[in-house]
Amino acid sequence: MKYILLLWLMLLAGGCAHLPDTGAISLMQINFWLANEEYGNALAVLQRQIQRHPEDESLRKLLQSTQQSANRYARDKIARANQLVEQNRWDKALEQIDDAQKHWPQSAVLRIARDVLEARRQQRIEQLQLELLLHEGASLLETARQHRELEFVNPGYLFLDRDLRKYQSRRRAVAEKLFEAGIQAQKEGDLRLAQHCLVLAQRLEDSRKVQDALRRLPEIEQVEESEELEPPRHPSRPLVQRVSPKKRQQQRLNRLLTEYARVRDRNDLAAARRIMLKMEKTDPAHPRVKELKAEQDLLVQQFVQRSIAWGDDLYSQERIKEAVDVWQAALKVDPLNKELRNKLDRAKTALKTLQELKQNPH
Q1: CATH topology for 291-359?
Q2: Which of 38, 134, 208, 334 could bridge 33 with an S-S bond, Cβ 3.0-4.6 Å?
Q3: C-alpha distances in angstroms, 30 versus 16, 27, 47, 107?
Q4: Whole-number pLDDT of residue 5
Q5: Distance of CA 199 to CAs 129, 181, 189, 212, 274, Å?
Q6: What is the average pLDDT across 315-319?
């Protein structure tokens, strides 16, 4: 209630004069959105007003306070989702982010948090599948010993041949999957995991392709059998903990995406540009990077156009210093813009001339 009352006072103090431009949307409607955490609607309306009236300080303060509340809301939702992940409740964690996105669809933070969370879940699924495969391979080796012992103890066992055929078929299938996992681990630069999988595959099915793969594998410290088959020491600690160069690249990109989303939601286009350059250097072909780059370019273009128009208006009123400040802020967002540089050069020359005239009036 205190926040809603503050909002009303700020609107009445100066911003409300412009809000009727939104058509059927009233002050009561905006208050209703904020009270129900519908930040997407409230921010969209306020941002349109700022575009129409960039000089209105009361609107800027109102937008800033609403943006801060929206950012806190997003942080709380993401924190809750991370808590649910720690409890291994992945579906509930994703529901937290999905619900938050309904309240603030434009949020880059929430969109990227959703991507990162889904990527983490997929990585965990692949990790668990590999652990199960390694355990099954070890189990099949133990089964071979039991089959041999059964053959000696009960050579007339009626179903021995059938059981052996089923066992051999499964053994070949698991060996093939381990071979594929080993090749993939080698491609990702995880040589220890590659050797781990290929050695176990060879013990299950000593084929030519497995032998060739092991010969091509760069020399590393030999994996001992006891290490190969060692189970996790703690239920929450995964068997496969190695980080390949590809995964390190993905982790760096995830950090940059999260950082980028935060500054984007603060409308800090200059900082967003710097982070975007780092993301393009890290993984320029990533679909999310391409998508965000296109959005960023459009936002920059719109911001620069508004800044040029606003600066031109100030310049025509002989408020040259204010025009310079507006254009310089835009140049931080688009440093290569020639039109902005030309306008700044002209304005600085005019300021210098005015300064000289003040110093030498005659």
Answers
A1: 1.25.40
A2: 38
A3: 11, 5, 13, 18
A4: 42
A5: 18, 12, 17, 12, 46
A6: 87
